Amino acid sequence: MVADAEVDPVSKSPRPPAKSRGGTDTRIMRAALEILRVHGPHRVTVEAVAALSGVAKTTIYRRYANREEILDAALDSQSVTPCVPDGLCVYDRMKWTLEQVRRALASDMGLGSVGAALTDEDPDFTESFREIINARSDVVAGVLRAAVDAGAVRSDLDIDTAVSMLVGSYLGAYLRHGEVSESWADGVVHAMCPELEPEAPER
Q: Superfamily for 7-76?
């Protein structure tokens, strides 16, 4: 076929320099994540990624066999569990961990992913999405446990329920207002754990 004659076989194509290949991979992943966060997993296709990234489909197929591999790679890129920075007080540690949840829901995975998980349109994706959210939620739970151990929070606190309320408050704010303010994490910690807030320095 004529179309086949126009495509150079992979074996005859010169291997791009490492820097070029890395840039291409980054463009592919950025495009896949952008589609995922806005539209959900069902819209992550080779054609859509090629159109948004500007990378030719033939180049994408050299790296990924199909859309499932692209989607798996996009999810894997978000699966790293964040580490809480040293030197933060308990209140600031809570705020920092909530910001990681905020990033996952708002920019890393996006509300398109949230919608897909809520409708369970793709069970495999839903499972992967929950693993990512739970990994970041576990960091929040760890901070709360440390606060309980330190006596900063009451000892009978139900950690799992508290984490669900903290994470759910983001979705609640978005559903009510259509956006979430930059002060969301601070407001949530102040409302739920006011005893953690540092005292104002004396003048």
A: Tetracycline Repressor, domain 2 (1.10.357.10)
